[in-house]
Design a protein that fits this description.
Blueprint lengths: L1 E5 L4 H12 L5 E5 L3 H7 L7 H13 L4 E4 L5 H5 L2 H4 L3 E3 L2 H10 L2 E6 L2 H18 L4 E6 L1 H8 L3 H13 L6 E4 L17 E2 L2 H11 L7
Parallel strand pairs: 1-2, 1-3, 3-4, 5-6, 5-7, 7-8
Helix pairs in contact: 1-10, 6-7, 8-9
Length: 216
């Protein structure tokens, strides 16, 4: 069984659909900490919810998870840091995306709709660049007005606002959508620049980690 830790219930059907498309038969169990993102944003950063994230991971492992995937970019590093004591792989959904974006070229733009995701995503991209020995120049773009649509439950307007911002980007070799919730915008963009979203590659990596016989 693969456990997914979310900060919004809207991600549950997204990852269930990806599982059905790409990994039929994979058992998923979802753990939603809806308050974690707001607390991380309002209380000084992801470390403010480290204990709660650790608790969710421990609960997932206690219920039989062979691997845990955190789908929130803001708390992804905190979740990943629990791996040493978890006894199973703990992955952050955006790491495979970051590696792919680094491989696309040195000029990289990270788009986010909440400020709290930008720092962790840039740090992850730079970490993957060091790992690959690839120089990168990272710019960030906050599409704050899009978040209002997400908060209001208007997924279509949210995706459209993100896609419009993507299409306005110039002088980039790759564009990273910093939150899993932004992935639908990938299908709406008209840009020729590669646009990377995290859910599909993140789930693929976690599914591989959860296979029987795979070590920690």
């Amino acid at each position: 069984m693969l456990a997914l830790v979310h900060t919004s219930a809207v991600h549950v059907p997204v990852f269930d659909a990806l599982r059905d498309e790409d990994h039929p038969g994979l058992q998923l169990r979802h753990f939603v900490g809806a308050e974690l993102l707001e607390r991380a944003r309002g209380e000084g950063g992801p470390e403010a919810v480290a204990a709660e994230v650790r608790g969710l991971v421990e609960r997932a492992v206690g219920e039989g998870a062979r691997a845990v995937l955190c789908t929130c970019s803001t708390i992804g590093a905190v979740a990943e840091a629990t791996a040493a004591g978890a006894g199973v792989p703990v992955l952050r959904v955006d790491r495979p995306m970051a590696a792919a974006a680094v491989a696309a070229g040195p000029r990289l733009v990270v788009l986010g709709t909440v400020t709290s995701t930008l720092g962790p995503t840039v740090a992850l991209v730079e970490e993957e660049a060091r790992r690959a020995g690839a120089p990168v120049r990272v710019r960030t773009l906050l599409v704050e007005e899009a978040w209002e649509h997400f908060a209001a439950g208007d997924a279509d307007a949210y995706a459209r606002a993100v896609a419009d911002a993507v299409d306005d980007v110039r002088d980039a070799d790759s564009i990273v959508l910093a939150q899993a919730s932004m992935a639908p915008a990938q299908r709406l963009t008209r840009t020729s620049v590669p646009v990377f979203a995290s859910p599909r590659p993140g789930l693929a990596a976690a599914a591989a980690a959860a296979r029987p016989g795979r070590g920690v």
